[in-house]
Amino acid sequence: MQDLSSGFAPDDASARPIHMLDPSGLDAWMKEQDSVTRDWVKDAGFTAQAGRVLTIPALDGTLAGALVGLGDPDKHGRHRFLLAQARAALPQGNWRLLTEFDTDAANEAALGWLLAGHVFDRYAEAQAPNTRLVPPSSCDRARVLAIANGEALTRDLINTPANDMGPAELEQAARDLADRHGAAIDVIGSDALLDRNFPLIHTVGRAAAPHRAPRLIDLRWGGAGPTLTLVGKGVCFDTGGLNLKPGSSMGLMKKDMGGAATVLGLAHMIMALGLSLRLRVLIPAVENAVGSDAFRPGDILPSRKGLSVEINNTDAEGRLVLADALAFGAEDAPDLMVSMATLTGAARVAVGPDLAPFFCDDDPLADALYSGARRVRDPVWRLPFWEPYEPMIEPGIADLDNAPKGGFAGAITAALFLRRFTEGAARYVHFDIYGWQPTAAPARPKGGVGQGARALLAALPQVLKL
């Protein structure tokens, strides 16, 4: 996991100032400057456009500071992490953010700065910006650093291709995280899955090569407080199975373990911050491969919970492995259980790549997630557990259908399927994330990205009464 702490500088009076300004703030700032500086800003055409960066020279030719545009306040919702754009544009050295922000805005600015320093350099050399920030006094430095490093872990795991990120490597990442924080970890592997009643996880992963055999990762941390169970889909590559995906759909399937990557990143945040709760992380890690032992369309499979499942599409495998893991987690009756998964294309059609849709029956919990998402600029959107669609996942020949025909409401029917396995958990939330940034944006280069984790972290104190 890349440590992003080098992006922060200790308090340094000599650090050059950064002023983040909207157009009215720019007008006020200009009135306080000498005529040379005012002319410089005007001649450069700087009008505090969102994300625009302008360095300001001193009279002796040295660098006096920089301006970063916030844009029109009425359009603030269009932009996130604007300070991140400045990091790559500024000369090396220490910088100080002088603009007065409340804690949430200061944390967003500082987080964006740190994330702009994250590079994925496992396979090709990449240079992180050689600049450091003295965060504003209102910034919660330790919290921002924990979040940034958790997000870096998530991104690195998703970006790593499947030849180097199979079930065994995902297990090792979880073990490394457990060692770092003194957590306990248990891994149920291969044939032991059948012995311990995880038939769906075993069936989905059994066609993979022996060194990529399926397993269930179970990490526990914390000795007191409310209980939180995170369940992350760990399909390390998804061919679609015998319902083979076309090449155009298979190209990004290294990210099909994005749910697992996200819950591991969130687990780091929780443990690094020392939250007063008992955390459990469950990851069914598999590869959905094509082979002589692959499960087939038309098969009817047992599950840990005892519900039978008719397989109408082997490419709807994520809900199968999650079902066994959710049933296992629910047996402990956690106060809150959360699943995160790159589960359905239907969710992407509904809300696009930026929004993380979530399903929740609990209005106060949903409100807390919305509130947290707004504070930390981690957008989420609620979709319904729409009960009139329950018959769509009941095929008659078995208790459940893993891929209802018709093509409608795919994200909702998948969420309804998962909810059938959560009995025992006091509250349940399901996130159907994308886990990928398709085009570069401030603090979010093209590639793997965490979604929903920061919103949930922000909501936990209210939801679990921490």
From TrEMBL:
GO terms for molecular function: manganese ion binding; metalloaminopeptidase activity. Residues 313-320 form the Cytosol aminopeptidase domain. Keywords: Aminopeptidase, Hydrolase, Manganese, Protease. GO terms for cellular component: cytoplasm. One of its GO terms (biological process) is proteolysis. It holds the Pfam family Peptidase_M17_N_1. Belongs to the peptidase M17 family. This is Leucyl aminopeptidase family protein. It comes from Palleronia pontilimi.
